[in-house]
Amino acid sequence: MQKAGESGKPLNEMTVLITGGSGGIGGAIAERFASVGMNIIIHYMRSHEAANDVARRCMALGAKVLTVAADIRDRGQLLRMAERLEQAGMLPDILVNNAGVAHYGMLADVTEEEWDDLMAVNLKGTFLCSQIFMPGMISRRFGRIINVSSVWGISGASCEVAYSASKGGVNAFTKALAKELAPSGVTVNAVAPGAVQTAMLNNLQEDEMRMLKEEIPVGRLASPEEISSLVYFLALPESGYITGQVISPNGGWIT
């Protein structure tokens, strides 16, 4: 008899949906799952070519891949996306809420519109995607929801108050939803990376990058692949006893 938290499917028959799958971390997550033959859904909003690039890399690994565009702030668009996935026979067993936006600046200068947009993408998008796709996981008695948060959601960062608040909300959402879904065999965890070598840090000057690395005990930034490996581990059927956790791969920066 199948126990809660144990999938009846082998890994290569599972489907994973990665929101914001066209970016550095999202692309690395997609490729990690593709490497074991999972069905991959790459969500994006505007980055059509980048999403196709990730799709081609995943297909080269032997995975079945579907790219889908939707504004995760809009329930209607997400419901239409879910209908398309159901028609394709690719409703997700694993949901990786990775889509997010950053904002840098003093709180005194943050406009109400900037605040609302940050919360809509980072927090509301996580809520909407989880709410839409978790019923299927509950009915199958298996599912994994993995939210990509940030170390600043744990400790907060000066000049990133709004961003820190949105990711702190994701962390609290993770812990609470995990308790709701645990009896149904669905785990909910968050990965809260520190500094990762992606385009998000391209605006840093050379001296700023050097000082950042000096602050991190391991002396370097994380690679997207290091983050994707943790996400993959949390998605495995044998990780079914890990839920409600916010795990921060940050090189010892924040402990």
Task: Please outline the helices and strands.
Layout lengths: L14 E4 L5 H11 L4 E6 L3 H13 L4 E5 L5 H13 L6 E4 L14 H29 L2 E6 L3 H4 L5 H21 L4 E6 L14 H10 L8 H12 L10 E2 L8
Parallel strand pairs: 1-2, 1-4, 2-3, 4-5, 5-6, 6-7
Helix pairs in contact: 1-2, 1-8, 3-4, 4-6
Explain this structure.
The protein is 44% helix and 13% strand. With 255 residues, it is an alpha/beta fold. It has a single domain, classed as Rossmann fold. A 7-stranded parallel β-sheet has the order 3-2-1-4-5-6-7, sandwiched between helices. Helix 4 (112-140) links the parallel strand 4 and strand 5 (143-148). Helix 4 (112-140) packs parallel to helix 6 (161-181). The protein starts with 14 loop residues before the first strand and ends in an 8-residue tail after the last strand. 44% of the residues are buried.
Report strand order across the widest sheet: 3-2-1-4-5-6-7
Helix content: 40-55%
Task: Give the end-to-end Cα distance, rounded to a whole number of Å.
Answer: 41 Å
Please give the domain count.
1
CATH level 3 topology: Rossmann fold
Binned strand content: 5-15%
| Radius of gyration, whole Å | 18 Å
Order of helices and strands: EHEHEHEHEHHEHHE
CATH class: Alpha Beta
Strand element count: 7
Total count of helical runs of at least 4 residues: 8
Write down the overall geometry. globular
CATH architecture: 3-Layer(aba) Sandwich
Main β-sheet description: 7 strands, parallel
- Structural class comes to alpha/beta
Q: Tell me the name of the CATH homologous superfamily.
A: NAD(P)-binding Rossmann-like Domain
